[in-house]
Amino acid sequence: MSGDTNSKAAAVENEVESAAVAEKAVVVEELEKHFGDFVAVNRVSFSVDRGEVFGFLGPNGAGKSTTIRMLCGILAPDGGRGTIVGFDLFTEAERIKTHIGYMSQRFSLYEDLTVEENIDFYSGIYHIDRGRRRQRKAWVLEMAGLDERPRARVSTLATGWKQRLALGCAILHEPSVLFLDEPTSGVDPISRRRFWDLIYDLSGQGVTVFVTTHYLDEAEYCHRLGLIYRGELIACGTPAALKTGFVRDGVARDGFDAHPSLEDVFVSLIEARDRAEQPQAEVRR
Q1: Closest Cα to residue 101, out of 149, 138, 68?
Q2: Could you report the per-residue pLDDT of 184-196, keeping only the tens digit for each?
Q3: What 8-state DSSP symbol labels residue 156?
Q4: Where are the beta strands (DSSP E) in the chain?
Q5: pTM to 2 decimals?
């Protein structure tokens, strides 16, 4: 009798654990990447919920792009564990690629092709059924505001138009997770705001969005943020929680204002990490 009870309890526990895992689009534990003696990503751990907009921030060379390339199956990790929508980073990289979209800061478009030729090319890359290609092309053209310019050469488009077209090409196959690597670099403020409206629309449809950016005003739009520095994740939380944790009893730390910005928080965290890593001076008596 007790054996049956234990079996049922174990089954319920497994179901709960499975349900919890199902809510996670990205799970990373102790992820590592080395290039020779250089440690680009050092035992990074985090998770991202389905439908969440997760911002990944850090200075140039901090490990942002390397992490994204591992999550996309482009680079093989050297250590740790991880899954993308349930697929293992180490053993199921090719299956992961069919469930994700990726957009780099260079937009990944072919400048010498027309708008619709780029869409057709990516439709083939993602193996979209011929019966759906016309529907998906019409959707991308409308979303990008290019439905009246399908035959325009991409090289003639303004940066904002290229940005939205690149996003459309990245999600032609309706992926579960979308990786955006500094997608708004060099884009004017109005185009950036419109782009974030599109990101929120995708999030509302259940798409998980993993985005890197250098613009801290954009970081405020994310549901949660991770700060990576020298290959290590040194902070993770909602923008509000990170700023609240920066202040103790209404008194700001390190001489910053009592109502800190994200820039205040991140600068302070990075400077604190640098101070902690500096060798201590020897005390002689």
Answers
A1: 68
A2: 887 888 888 889 9
A3: G
A4: 24-35, 38-49, 53-57, 79-84, 87-88, 100-103, 177-181, 208-212, 224-229, 232-237, 247-248, 251-252
A5: 0.84
